[in-house]
Design goal:
The protein is α/β, with parallel strands linked by helices. The protein is built from ten helices and 14 strands. The radius of gyration is 27 Å and the shape is flat. InterPro entries: vWFA_dom_sf (IPR036465).
């Protein structure tokens, strides 16, 4: 259709969706595969070749080899020399960022960025975020908050259009809100049950973590996010480590994870703190004072779960709410989570894998609004 000019002088053309290039199409699939293979490039490419063979993803004009070459040229792939002298391909930091962005789009796709992303308190006055609202001047208000235009309008209304009289009663200031920082710790269960029964639960958990990390760094830049994993023990990981996360032959030491999470948050200076815990199994492990491990995978061990309840209550005393996402729907596990949540006065969701990310974002937003506004 040719361009047409209407009477206003604006030009209108039919909208045409931009077609993805062969590289872009394959890259979308590659980001999914590299997440599932925990960053193993060779395995991801093998999967891509199998998909290509079955679904004819490439043509003679653009092959998988061409795609790999483009990954290198665009900075998504690097070659390293292994100790035995062989060359090995691995993804770069640029690819890691692309994977996090992809997770954000998948899980929080309806989200639109607005401003710097800081939430409000209900304290007004000497804040640092303009609201667009006005109120009467009060003693103690900073003079640089005065709205000269609105104050003069008031003076004209109160004293007549021809009057230049301006009194304290005419003055108005622009209302502001204080911005508040929030510190979050995300706990990810990497016990063996995350891949039991032929069900991949660790990949969606990783996606949620990557999406949350990307969300906070882009929309809430003043917030902090720490990530830890827990199995028999608990240890912190970096955001860049998330694509490579794998489960291990571990039991579930929930107490160790909570201990580390609270230790991290204890060092944060701001008062708004939160723990998210993603798990699919019951607590089944504790480290004893002598360094040995007490493990019991049969049912809910009273000794272990009581320690968990105590940790939840301790977090409540420190004003740290815990939101638990139980990726299981067994009644006896729900019973444990309910009591755990009651001890902390936090929140709990019982869910399958679908919708997990949306719930995490929803509660992240709600928690900020409840505790900060």
């Amino acid at each position: 259709m040719s361009k047409k000019i209407n009477r206003t002088g604006f030009k209108f053309t039919p909208y045409e969706a931009k077609e993805k290039s062969p590289f872009e199409m394959l890259f979308e699939i590659f980001k999914e595969l590299i997440t599932h293979t925990s960053g193993d490039f060779d395995e991801a490419i093998e999967w891509l070749k199998m998909l290509d063979k079955e679904y004819k993803l490439t043509t003679d004009a653009y092959t998988i080899d061409d795609f790999i070459e483009d990954l290198k040229n665009k900075g998504y792939l690097k070659e390293t020399i292994t100790p035995d002298g062989n060359s090995k391909s691995s993804i770069t930091a640029k690819t890691e960022r692309a994977i996090r962005k992809n997770a954000l789009n998948q899980i929080f796709g309806k989200l639109k960025k607005s401003g710097v992303g800081n939430h409000k308190t209900k304290i007004t006055g000497l804040g640092d975020e303009h609201t667009g609202d006005y109120r009467n001047f009060e003693f103690g208000d900073s003079l640089d908050r005065l709205s000269v235009t609105e104050s003069l309008k008031n003076a004209q209304i109160n004293h007549g259009l021809g009057s230049f009289k301006l009194t304290e009663q005419d003055l108005v200031v622009e209302d502001t809100h204080h911005k508040s920082q929030m510190s979050t710790v995300l706990m990810i269960d990497i016990s063996h049950s995350m891949i039991l029964y032929g069900e991949d639960r660790i990949t969606p958990a990783k996606k949620v973590a990557m999406a949350l990390a990307e969300l906070i760094t882009t929309r809430y830049p003043k917030d902090t996010l720490d990530i830890l994993v827990f199995g028999n023990d608990a240890w912190p990981i970096k955001v860049k480590d998330l694509p490579y996360l794998q489960v291990g032959p571990y039991h579930t030491n929930t107490v160790a994870g909570l201990n580390l999470a609270m230790d991290i948050l204890r060092r944060k200076r701001n008062t708004n703190k939160h723990i998210f815990m993603i798990t699919d199994g019951k607590p089944s492990c504790l480290q004893m004072p002598d360094g040995t491990y007490y493990k019991n995978s049969n049912g809910l061990d009273k000794f272990i779960v009581e320690k968990c309840y105590n940790m939840a209550a301790h977090a409540r005393k420190l004003h740290i709410p815990i939101t638990t996402f139980m990726i299981a729907q067994d009644p006896y596990l729900q019973s444990f989570v309910e009591k755990f949540t009651e001890s902390n006065r936090g929140k709990a969701f019982y869910t399958g894998l679908e919708g997990l990310g949306e719930m995490i974002f929803h509660d992240y937003e709600n928690n900020r609004k409840k505790r900060i506004r």
